[in-house]
Structures are given as structure tokens and as C-alpha cells.
Amino acid sequence: MKRFSIAMLLGASAILIGCNQGTSGGPGATSPPFKKPMLGQAANTFSLAVPSMNLNQGETKTVTLGVNRGENFNEDVSLKLGDLPKGVTSDPARPVINHGDTDMELTLKAANDAALGNFTVKVTGHPTKGADAVAELKISVAKQEAGSAAKAQWDEYIIAMQKQLDQLTAKYAELKERAAKAEGQAKTDLDAKLAEAKTKLDAAALKLEEMKSAGADRWEKVKEGVANAFDDLKRIFE
Description:
By secondary structure, the protein is an alpha+beta fold. The chain has two domains: 2-142, Sandwich (Immunoglobulin-like); 148-236. Helix content is 43%, strand content 24%. Strands 2-9-8-4-6 form a five-stranded mixed β-sheet, with no helix packed on it. It has a four-stranded antiparallel β-sheet with strand order 1-3-7-5. The chain is flat. Mean pLDDT is 83; it is low at 1-20.
């Protein structure tokens, strides 16, 4: 009786995993006879890990899309999303999970008048070689709650400014590398520019943290200071 219970549990686990992950792809998925193992991922195949998400009108959220790699499968996987609900957009529009990664973040934004309801979006994973894998992204779009419009705008602004800060930090790193290799007057000039850039980079990061701490109800009061700090930093790299 005990053995029977364990077998039943293992079978149930396999069914649940299959439902969550959809169909497998990769070179191994088309090599007969392909048989998905009870647990884990078959060699030289992959499957997609796609969670469900709730999204309000006017809201921006990030969802993590993953790839379960079987032994010997180490390829880039390009992701294609089927028709999103009306008024919902994705960034990036053409997501890719690189061969050294197991997941990537996808940002979904719902317009203030996005279609309401429960939707199932087909997600197709296309590997460099072999068959595609398919999974379903279930999205529930709800009506914007009273008072949530300001928070949605705040969330969107925070995401956009954080992306800008990451890009400017990368430019600072490039400038630092150039300064390290320079000589003579060129090095003196680059070192001075580097010091100014560091000061303004720290100031922009601090302003962004202030906005995060201010919350959605006070973000308009500190928005100008954030914008000015970022503009000052951008001018360094122009």
C-alpha cells in the first residue's frame, strides 16, 4: 500500500510539471523514440517555465520567463509571444534567453483602457537547433483600483529611470577604462571628467533612491530633482 502511494505521488508530480511547462523542444525532442522522463528534463531538450500573472489597467509589472535545460542542451532560446490582450505591451518585444542563462525578465504594461478578463498567451521558445517548445502565459487583467493610477505612473517612472541609471553606469565604466589606458594630457583630462562623472552618478543614484522612498503619493514632488540630476549626468557623456 505504501509503495502504491509513492508511485501515485510521482505520477501526479509528472503531470503537474508537464502542465506548467508545456511541450519540450530542442534537438532531442525530435529524435525518436522521444519519451519525457517522469522527473526532470530529457537530454538535449528544453522546456519553458512560464508563470501566471495578475495585471491592473495602467500597471507595469515584470515577469520572469525561464528555460529548463536538459543535459547537453546549451543554446540560445528566442521567445515569441502570441497575441497579447488589447492594450498590453511587452518589453523587450523579442525576448531571448541566452545560452548561459536560465531565465530573463519581461516587462508587461497595461494601458489605462486595456481589455479586462483572463487571457492565455502562447509562448513559443525557438532554439538555435531543434524543435520549438511551447508554454502558456496566463494573464488576468483587472480594472484599475481607485488611487492606483498614481502608483502605476510611479512604478513606470522608477523602472524607466533605473534602466537609464544602468546605462549611464555602463558609460561610466567605459570612461574609467579609457582613462586607465590614456597617457599625458589626455589622461589628465579624462581623470578630471571621470571624477566629475562619479560625483554626478552618485547624485543621480541618490535622487532615484529618494524617489523610491517617497512612494507613489509624493513622487511628483521629487520628480524634477531626479530629472535634473540625470540630465547633469548625461551631459558628461555627450
